[in-house]
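Action item from last meeting closed. Structure (400 res):
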């Protein structure tokens, strides 16, 4: 019923590193060519954990945006914006909060986790408890069907689906819905109407999911329906409700997880990163000083790639023939570690080359980035306002 749409956000953490690129940005770049995408800087999310030190949020936002653009996120394909510039996100968060059970928020796995991990901070705040709800509003406000996220975020997407379902259940009741839906069925024409009714029964009584899919496909094809009738027919298929909010799905990033320089996950807090546009000499030096298999003390000692963090980088950056060369050369002490690292260095520098080029214009003229997010904010806001009109009406707040 609603067009396929992709929404994802990132907290402003400042300069991005290659872990962000391989874990998320590369996937965004791919998706922007396939579907309408909205990508935003989750600045309010940053405040849920950094409320005591907001001073870095703004500069981190600009740095991060330059890196998105450098990575190839393209403002002529995707809509880029800053969350707080679309205040409708806050309105929807507030309204969804009215009917969200506290238990749903307390049970989100990251909640207790993060409170323990970030023990030096007081996170027993309303804002921190509510951040998965704000995340739900971020997505539901665009009626997005897909949310590209890492697997740590899957429970958040599950909760979004529950929130959307609960909303439709509570507020999707429309006076005379049944009659209006049946009138809409008639408008399909007798052949299609008959098929629609059969498929609806097959789904509702016999639980046939493919009947639901088939019926949805048929509605997509039915040209002569008004938007509102189409919505009713979609809602009527699944029950006796209008679908105001859409249940989104997680689109798991099939990321080649990029390890850091020490073999652990690449992360700023481990100090093991290479930033997206890091200086060439610095990249070279960092890789050259990476630890290797500790058993290779001397050049003549054979090693085992499985025990070496450099090998993990080869798995991301090298083709089969180089990898074979590494395995043979390492196990037989035929190659030295510096020799082994060179193809990785070359591949990283090659990957970064276009990023440096794309970033240059934005560094030369930062007003370009301001203009991109101003334009993106306007576009996002229009979409958000459309949804909010329906949400307010459903919740008895239209005052017309
Ligand atoms: N919570 C996400 C994170 O910490 C960022 C985020 C905020 C997000 N809103 C979102 C991601 C909406 C996807 C969709 O990484
Ligand atoms: Fe690691 Fe390569 Fe040295 Fe083997 S040769 S230990 S894989 S850096």
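Sequence:
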């Amino acid at each position: 019923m609603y067009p396929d749409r992709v929404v994802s956000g990132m907290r402003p953490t400042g300069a991005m590193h290659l872990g962000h690129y391989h874990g998320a940005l590369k996937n965004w770049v791919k998706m922007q060519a396939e579907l309408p995408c909205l990508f935003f800087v989750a600045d309010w999310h940053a405040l849920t954990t950094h409320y005591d030190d907001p001073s870095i949020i703004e500069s981190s936002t600009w740095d991060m945006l330059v890196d998105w653009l450098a990575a190839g996120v393209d403002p002529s394909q995707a809509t880029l914006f800053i969350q707080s510039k679309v205040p409708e996100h806050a309105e929807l968060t507030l309204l969804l909060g009215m009917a969200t059970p506290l238990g749903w928020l307390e049970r989100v796995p990251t909640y207790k986790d993060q409170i323990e991990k970030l023990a030096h901070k007081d996170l027993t705040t309303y804002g921190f408890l509510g951040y998965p709800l704000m995340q739900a509003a971020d997505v539901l406000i665009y009626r997005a069907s897909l949310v590209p996220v890492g697997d740590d975020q899957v429970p958040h997407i599950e909760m979004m689906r529950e929130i959307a379902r609960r909303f439709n259940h509570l507020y999707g009741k429309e006076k005379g819905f049944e009659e209006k839906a049946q009138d809409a069925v008639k408008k399909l024409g007798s052949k299609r109407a008959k098929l629609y009714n059969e498929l609806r029964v097959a789904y509702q009584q016999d639980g046939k999911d493919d009947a639901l899919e088939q019926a949805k496909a048929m509605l997509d094809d039915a040209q002569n329906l008004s938007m509102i009738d189409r919505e009713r027919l979609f809602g009527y298929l699944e029950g006796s409700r209008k679908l105001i909010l859409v249940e989104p799905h997680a689109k798991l990033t099939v990321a080649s997880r990029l390890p850091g320089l020490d073999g652990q996950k690449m992360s700023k807090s481990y100090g093991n990163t290479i930033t997206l546009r890091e200086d060439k000499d610095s990249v070279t030096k960092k890789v050259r000083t990476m630890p290797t298999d500790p058993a290779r003390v001397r050049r003549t000692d054979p090693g085992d790639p499985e025990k070496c963090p450099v090998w993990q980088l080869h798995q991301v950056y090298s083709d089969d023939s180089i990898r074979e060369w590494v395995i043979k050369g390492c196990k037989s002490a035929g190659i030295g570690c510096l020799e082994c690292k060179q193809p990785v260095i070359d591949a990283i520098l090659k990957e970064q080359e276009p990023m440096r080029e794309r970033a240059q214009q934005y560094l030369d003229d930062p007003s370009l980035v301001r203009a991109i997010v101003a334009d993106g904010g306007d576009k996002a806001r229009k979409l958000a306002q459309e949804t909010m009109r329906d949400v307010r009406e459903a919740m008895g707040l239209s005052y017309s």
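Note appended to the action item: The longest helix spans residues 337-364.
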